[in-house]
Amino acid sequence: KAYYNDDNFKREHGENEINLWKFYNMLTGANKSSYIDNFLDRSLNVTYLTEGIDRALHGDSTYKWFIE
Description:
Layout: H1 20-29, H2 36-57
């Protein structure tokens, strides 16, 4: 919902990089309305996804499929 205007994700003026902390916050923002039995699983999945993207951006070939 309104990802382009989301304060946790939108690009700041002159910013050309992805901020993984903002990316993580955007993904967990959608999870806040989940029931507790799904909340923990979804939060863990978001953490793994964000860590995988970070590793891929830093050259880890195991995770390169995240950004290819």
